[in-house]
Amino acid sequence: MEQALLFPEAFPVQQPIREKNSVQYFPLLAKTVLNSCNSCRLPNAVTLNPYRGCEFGCNYCYARYTHEFMNLDWEDFENRIFVKTSAPRILMRTLDCDKLRGKHIAIGTATDPYQPAEARFMITRQLLEVFSQVKGLTISITTKSALFRRDLDLFVKIAENNRFRINLSLISLNARLLRVLEPKASSPESRLASLKMVSDAGIPTAVFIMPILPALTDGLKTLESVVRAAREHGASDIHARVLFLRDSAKRILYSWLERHEPRLAQRYKALYNKRAYTETQYQKRTLGVVESLKAKYGYSSRPEKDLLVESFSRIGEAQGTFEEPDLFEGPC
């Protein structure tokens, strides 16, 4: 009874709820909510995704292919959002802190936990309510939404008894560029304002410059502006990775480039061709610039190994192991 009161049903009916801009939300029952990444390069990571699909519609998103697991086109990733309505109850019933100590629970890997759906359905907040009742875990949330400041009260409770961090994804301060690259994500200013609020409350925060886009966000001025803003808004760490492109992401990014930056379309096709990564030399040079900027602004160039950051240092390299094969095949 207490669980039913704590987590009221998000969906009273099974039919999709049509929202503005043709986005549909569907209830989705899951068998599990915590998923091990032992098969990838994140041996200590356990992922938790409150939603499937992401309304932010980032044109470089590597996770678009995950909708193919549900026999949907990758284009549906931002228009058909699945809400794990049962996730909070499952987490409350199955959470085993003893088994999770020494692992990193990463919230928001194949979808943003604070995308627009969260303002309505509050699945992420309900999951945080469960974590606020336990001790001794390592937990992070990664988002490019300013909405996370809503849950500051829960962050404080969780951080009292667990290692906890907010990771803010921010690749540029150029609002005009981000508006076309990340159509529905929060503006850089609002993200940073939320970061400052949470950092000032004593919650550890980091800025993820992920991904760095060749010839679009890899310039020295662009990178320095992000690192400087991170310092000014209280981020305790910076981490960066160069763009990783799966086939589904290539299709949409190439199309975007042809419309908005045609001069770069052929360059990207040559850079990525039949691979998902740029050349090693380019990656080393670009990430070396970030390390220099970190040192300039008082960040440790190579911080001691930190489970919260290390687990996400290769976020794109997991190649699909983030998203959980835990669906009921029939209708919810």
In short:
The protein is of the alpha/beta class. The protein has helices spanning about 1-5, 85-95, 95-100, 115-120, 125-130, 150-160, 175-180, 190-200, 220-230, 245-260, 260-270, 280-295, 305-310; strands spanning about 15-20, 25, 35, 45-50, 50, 80-85, 105, 140-145, 165-170, 205-210, 235-240. The two termini are about 20 Å apart.
Task: List strands and helices in order, with pairings.
Blueprint: H1 2-6, E1 17-18, E2 24-27, E3 35-36, E4 45-48, E5 51-52, E6 80-83, H2 87-94, H3 97-100, E7 104-107, H4 116-121, H5 123-131, E8 138-143, H6 152-161, E9 163-169, H7 175-181, H8 188-200, E10 205-212, H9 220-232, E11 237-242, H10 247-260, H11 262-272, H12 280-296, H13 307-310
Parallel strand pairs: 2-6, 4-7, 7-8, 8-9, 9-10, 10-11
Antiparallel strand pairs: 1-2, 3-4, 5-6
Helix pairs in contact: 2-5, 9-12, 10-11
Report what the structure shows:
This protein has 332 residues and is α/β, with parallel strands linked by helices. The protein has a single domain (2-318), classed as TIM Barrel, CATH 3.20.20. The chain has helices spanning 2-6, 87-94, 97-100, 116-121, 123-131, 152-161, 175-181, 188-200, 220-232, 247-260, 262-272, 280-296, 307-310, and strands at residues 17-18, 24-27, 35-36, 45-48, 51-52, 80-83, 104-107, 138-143, 163-169, 205-212, 237-242. Strand 3 (35-36) and strand 4 form a beta hairpin. Helix 10 packs antiparallel against helix 11. The longest helix has 17 residues, at 280-296. The chain is globular and about 55 Å long. The model is unreliable at 1-13 and 310-332 (pLDDT under 50).
